[in-house]
Amino acid sequence: MPNSDSANNPSVPWYVWCSVAAVTFAMVGTHWDISWHQSIGRDTFWTPAHIAIHMCGVLAGISCGYLVLSTTFNPQSALRECSVWLWGFRGPLGAFIAAWGGIAMLTSAPFDDWWHNAYGLDVKILSPPHMVLAAGIFAVHAGALILILGQMNRASGALRDRLQILFLYVGGMILVCLTIVQIELTNRVVMHTAHFYRVVAIVAPPVLCGVARASRFRWAATSVAGVYSLFLILMGRILPLFPAEPKLGPVYHQTTQFTPPDFPLLFIVPALLLDLVWQRTQPWGILRQAIVSGAIFLGAFFLVQWPFANFLMSPAARNWFFGAKYFGYYVSPTSIVARYQFVATEQGALFAKELGWAVVTAVFTSWLGLAWGNWMLRIRR
Amino acid sequence: MKLLLAFFFAVALALAHVGSPDVFYEGDAGPYRLLITIRPPQVVPGVAEIEIRSTSADVRQIHIVPLRLGFQAQQFTPVPDLAQPSREDPQFYTGSLWLMACCSWQVRVDVDGARGPGRLSVPVPAIATQMLGMQKATSIILMALGLVLCLGLVSIAGAAARDSMLEPGKQPDAARVRRSRIVMAVAAVLVAGAVWFGNQWWSDEAGTFASRIYKPLRLEASVEGSRLALRLVDPGWINRSTDDLLPDHNHLMHLYVIRLPEMDRVWHLHPERQGDGNFAQPLPAMPAGRYALYGDIVHANGLPETATSEIDLPGIAGTPLTGDDAGGTAPPLASADYTRTVSPLSNGYRMVWDRGTAPLHARQASLIRFRVEDSAGHPAEGMELYMGMLGHAAFVSADRSVFAHVHPSGSVPMPALQLAQPDNPHAGHMMMSASLPAEVSFPYGFPKPGAYRIFVQVKRAGEILTGVFDASVEK
Q1: Which helix (H) or strand (E) holds A182?
Q2: What is the pTM for the complete model shown?
Q3: Of chain A residues 333-362, which have a CB less than 8 A from chain B?
Q4: A1 has pLDDT over 50
Q5: Which residues pair with B280 in a beta bridge?
């Protein structure tokens, strides 16, 4: 329903732009930082990539801090009537979620610093302090999503359309964010294992299902997967344009430019199919929809990604566009990655079991996503 | 919480010396003479601190870069770092380098100066030697933030269930409040589960790191008659071997035997290998007593280790020392004179420590100089190389927490140096000439304050001479 703030001010509020900018900074910074570690290796707190990540926290802090304080202490605030209450403060739910993310990001800094001092510099993504940071960044994304959603569900007309575009964009960035967490488990060398599909089924279906359901847009899943793909393609083509040389050893690949992220996973195909299916299954209950959605996602993704992995391993992919020619400086020339070989596929019953678990996972996470989407549809604050 | 369980875990350093992890090296980078100190990191990957003193005033700049030792053909060179000259002393340069993996590395030093370019490489071990606990302030801050995050997450879940779906202006009814409490309880359980999982993960990571912390080789010693039998025992640390040793001055093991507790007798022996990890040494005549054993070895990858042990020996009739084996006597440690600079040698000769008047300070690299004089006080003639060197020195702290076997080129073992400088077959060695100087110096920095005994061995006229000195090192 239209309310006073959308009727009086049809433009997208500045704090929404702030949170959209925050998630963009976070994802650009994170991919830049990963590339930095693959190409240069050594960094400081003040690298441009780190500053971009920190900008996420700064922008989220400014927008959410303003929202919470102005809503709490200004009796005339337009948001006062559509805010939630927490620890004596009032504000949109998304603002509190994003603020939580900012505190988590802040917490990760001394934790990560101590971790390096105690155990040495961790040259991997999956470590406890990095997961605290990832949780913080994800919360900023989720906060932005809910912040937009609260506005969107109260708005109508052109404002709702604009907010819907931003909502889908943030949904795409959430998919980018979650796939970064899995980056060490989704390299092209494992794309011919059933385990890879099980891992992917953990993150993609809930985002596609949840955001699509909450957006009420016909092509929402396709849009989310499109944002994810376009973002990674852009990062993958832009980063190698800049020179970089390794400042750590041992150096097994002589890099001369920033190493790009891998080519995006082909989520766009199952996402398109899901949109088409959902347009015909709206009256179904979410369990039935989840079973069909999970099966379609996994089946379609399996059918396109498996042969595409063959292509990524071929000389035809070793170019600037598909990026298979790029390696981190530390990749040994004798490694399976550098030799363009696959990790051995599981055999017989193990393969069937893993693939079965992948389907079950996809169905379960689709159900979670649809339930999350239904909840988000009712968000008003 | 893991924060509460964070602990301090350290091992006695027995990596290429005992309790003396810093690397000291004096050598020539082309025409430039450099004294280099490398302080390896305590965790790996970690930062090594580099200090370089040039004896030449015509050095313009120095670049430093880390490389894996012995893999020159397989690796490219990272972008070198520019070492920074000190403002107070322009011939003193510092820098820091990341050593990213275990175990054997080299720091390559490239010098540019008025006499053209020069280069040398110094091997350095990169071993995790301890796991630091968390400082109290950091743990308090992190626990406070962690508590805020956990409670915040539960509260946000409650607020979402209670208020977020209400139309603007409406208040939550009793049912929503009740549902909110249920959601908060469920969220609290989930948060507790996440914290438990995180703690398990942290413990696993800490356990993995702890398994990589250096565990020194043990030296098992026994005596049969006058034959000392030694066995290197690996307590289980990464994929170390005891049959991959490189000869250092033609010996696979350099064994210092020091009588305890007075350190009044010392032998520098060279046991022969008897099979994988087993060595044997015919002992010289030795009085009964307890002895400390320090066995220096170097692995094929250039990683040096000092295996230690103690043994009670009966009086040994023994056999005369032969070859490079040598022994010496000293005043009891209890009556050590820390101002004494002269140590008597045989045939009226003597060794003089040219120590100056300045006090010795811990962690300060310097050249520790000794001079051999004849009975008339003239520089001794007839000096010879002792295992390719002008001399060998052992620095042992009175509490025996420190042992370092040092050469005139530094604390770097020769096989590692040859891996780092494969194009220089004489790296670290002195070429034999008709007349050798009667002076020898050792680049070294005492690792901590306290009392030390220094055993210096040189060779003259076919005889290995041992001078003994005592040092009191200040902070």
Answers
A1: none
A2: 0.84
A3: 333
A4: no
A5: B229, B272
